[in-house]
Automatic annotation (TrEMBL):
UniProt keyword terms in alphabetical order: Signal
Signal peptide residues on this chain, from the entry's feature table: 1-18
SUPFAM superfamilies (UniProt xref): Porins
Keyword field contains Signal: yes
Protein's name according to its UniProt entry: Phosphate-selective porin O and P
Lineage of the organism: Bacteria, Pseudomonadati, Bacteroidota, Cytophagia, Cytophagales
Annotated organism of origin: Dyadobacter psychrophilus
C-alpha cells in the first residue's frame, strides 16, 4: 500500500519536484529533432511533450492569459483580463509508422471545449501517408501553426480569424508527404472533409462571414450538403532562404437539394492563400500570409454581402539581446511589428461604381521576453482603423495588451 501511495505521489508531483526538465524519475521531455527541416505542416507534432516512463502516450499543452485596455473613438470599457485558451494535446505511437495525435482546446475559461485535431496517421512512405479523423484544413500557415507560445503578439491575425476561420478543422481524410534533399524540402497535403454551411451569408454580422460556420457542430457528424470540402497545399523550403506555401480550399456551402428536391444551384466558395517565412540579416525573422476568398452570393442579397474578400499580415521580429537575463541562461528579448489588413467586400457599388470600403487596417508594435523558447511574456500596442461599407469616417481603436503564453 505504501509503495502504491509513493508511486501515486511521484506521478502527480514528479514534474514539480524535478522541474519538468528533459529527464526526471518518471517523466521524460520528448525532444524535437532540430536537425531536420521543419515546415508549417509539421507544427502538429513539432511541440514539447512529456512522456511518463515507457507508456506509449505523450502529453503536453499550452496556456494563454492576458490583459487589455482599449478605447474606440475615445470611449473605453476599462481594463479587462482574459484567459482565451488552455490547450491540451496527446500523442501516441501505436505501432511503428502508426501515430495518433489529438488537440483539445478549452476557450474563454472553459466556456467552450473544442476538439481541434484528432487524427490517425498511417505512414507508408515519406511521400505517401494517410491521415484521417478531425483534421486541420491546411489553408495558409497560421491555421496549422497557431500555438500561442510561438508568437510575439497577443491577438491572432485578423485575416486568419475573420476571413480564414481560425483553427478551422473538420472530419475528413487525405494524404500528405514530404521529400527532402540536402538543404531543400518539398511537401504536400490533400484532404476531403466536411465544410461550410449557409451561415456564411445568414448570420448576425450582416455581411459575408466565413467564421460563422464554426458554430455548426453538426459538421463533425455529417456534411451540410453532401459535397466534400477540398483542401490542397504545397510548400517548399530552403534551409538558408525561406519557406513558401501555396494552398487552396474549395467546396459548396449551400443546401442545393433536399430529399431529391432541387432547391437551388450549387454555390461554390474558394480560398487561395500564399504564405512565406524567412530569416534575413542573420536573425531578423519575417512571417507573412495573404488570402483571397471568393463566394457565390445569391442575387437576392444586397451588396453589403461581399462575394470577394482578401487580407493578410506581415510579422517582423528582431532579437535585440540574447543570453543570460534575470537569472535565465538562454533568454531572448525581441522587438516586433505586425502589419495587418482585411477587406470584407472587394469591389464597387453597382449603381455608382464607387469602391466598397468594408475594411480594417491594424498596426501592432510589440516587445517580448522569452526566458525559454517555450515561454513568452509579451506587451503589445494595437492601433486599428475600421472603415464601414459607405466610407463614413473611420473608427479608430487603440490600446495596450500584456500577457504570456507557455507550453507545459
Amino acid at each position: 500500500m505504501k509503495k502504491l501511495l509513493l508511486l501515486f505521489m511521484l506521478t502527480i508531483f514528479g514534474p514539480a519536484l524535478y522541474g519538468q526538465t528533459d529527464t526526471s524519475f518518471f517523466f521524460t521531455r520528448v525532444k524535437q529533432d532540430s536537425s531536420k527541416l521543419k515546415l508549417n505542416m509539421d507544427a502538429v507534432y513539432n511541440r514539447p511533450f512529456l512522456q511518463m516512463g515507457k507508456l506509449p502516450v505523450s502529453l503536453g499543452g499550452y496556456l494563454e492569459a492576458n490583459s487589455s485596455y482599449f478605447s474606440t473613438d475615445g470611449i473605453s470599457e476599462g481594463l479587462s483580463f482574459q484567459l482565451p485558451r488552455l490547450t491540451m494535446f496527446m500523442s501516441a505511437s501505436i505501432r511503428q509508422r502508426i501515430k495518433f495525435m489529438t488537440e483539445i482546446e478549452f476557450e474563454e475559461g472553459g466556456r467552450e471545449i473544442n476538439i481541434e485535431f484528432a487524427a490517425l496517421d498511417l505512414e507508408f512512405n515519406p511521400l505517401f501517408n494517410l491521415r484521417g479523423g478531425v483534421i486541420m484544413n491546411p489553408i495558409g500557415s497560421f491555421n496549422q501553426n497557431h500555438d500561442g507560445p510561438k508568437w510575439e503578439f497577443v491577438s491572432r491575425p485578423i485575416s486568419s480569424t475573420t476571413i480564414i476561420p481560425s483553427t478551422w478543422s473538420n472530419v475528413g481524410f487525405g494524404l500528405f508527404g514530404k521529400y527532402s534533399k540536402k538543404n531543400w524540402v518539398w511537401a504536400y497535403e490533400a484532404y476531403l472533409s466536411n465544410g461550410f454551411d449557409d451561415k456564411i451569408i445568414n448570420n448576425n454580422q450582416n455581411r459575408t462571414w466565413f467564421p460563422a460556420s464554426k458554430a455548426n457542430r453538426e459538421r463533425f457528424e455529417e456534411s451540410f450538403n453532401g459535397v466534400p470540402l477540398k483542401t490542397l497545399k504545397m510548400a517548399i523550403k530552403h534551409r538558408k532562404i525561406a519557406e513558401i506555401g501555396v494552398s487552396w480550399m474549395g467546396g459548396v456551402y449551400n443546401k442545393f437539394r433536399d430529399d431529391g428536391l432541387v432547391l437551388d444551384k450549387k454555390r461554390p466558395l474558394n480560398f487561395i492563400a500564399l504564405d512565406i517565412n524567412s530569416t534575413i540579416l542573420k536573425d531578423t525573422y519575417l512571417n507573412g500570409e495573404w488570402v483571397w476568398a471568393y463566394v457565390d452570393v445569391p442575387d437576392t442579397y444586397i451588396q453589403q454581402f461581399g462575394s470577394r474578400q482578401q487580407g493578410g499580415f506581415l510579422d517582423i521580429v528582431q532579437p535585440i539581446k540574447k543570453g543570460k537575463m534575470l537569472g535565465w541562461s538562454e533568454s531572448v528579448l525581441n522587438v516586433a511589428l505586425r502589419l495587418e489588413y482585411a477587406d470584407y467586400n472587394v469591389g464597387n457599388f453597382q449603381e455608382l461604381g464607387l469602391r466598397i470600403a468594408d475594411h480594417v487596417y491594424a498596426l501592432v508594435p510589440a516587445i517580448s521576453f522569452r526566458p525559454s523558447a517555450q515561454t513568452v511574456v509579451r506587451a503589445n500596442y494595437r492601433y486599428e482603423r475600421r472603415t464601414d461599407l459607405l466610407r463614413n469616417p473611420a473608427s479608430q481603436t487603440a490600446g495596450f495588451q500584456f500577457g504570456f503564453s507557455t507550453y507545459f
